[in-house]
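=== Per-residue structure ===
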Amino acid sequence: MNSHQEKPDPSTKPSGRVSIVINGQTYEVRPGTHPVTQLKTIPQPNIPKEDILCQMISGVLTPLDNKAHVTIVGGEVFASNCPSGGAS
């Protein structure tokens, strides 16, 4: 009997997915590059297209352009907010 069994790595999910946080809620996604517009569709209900998705980078919420792509490795934190200001 083989008593040596590999223990699963707790940092990765069995399905090959990793955890990210959007607006305080944890979600599991596949690692890799994702368009910002795709990340906005993860929460239910979706983040409105006109809202700005920000990523916590070095302790600062950094706004992301809707045309940008984000590399997900796990542990990323995002928050959305409505655009400030507005046309009359």
User: Anything to note?
Assistant: Residues 18-81 form a domain with the Ubiquitin-like (UB roll) fold (CATH 3.10.20). Residues 2-8 have pLDDT under 50 and may be disordered.
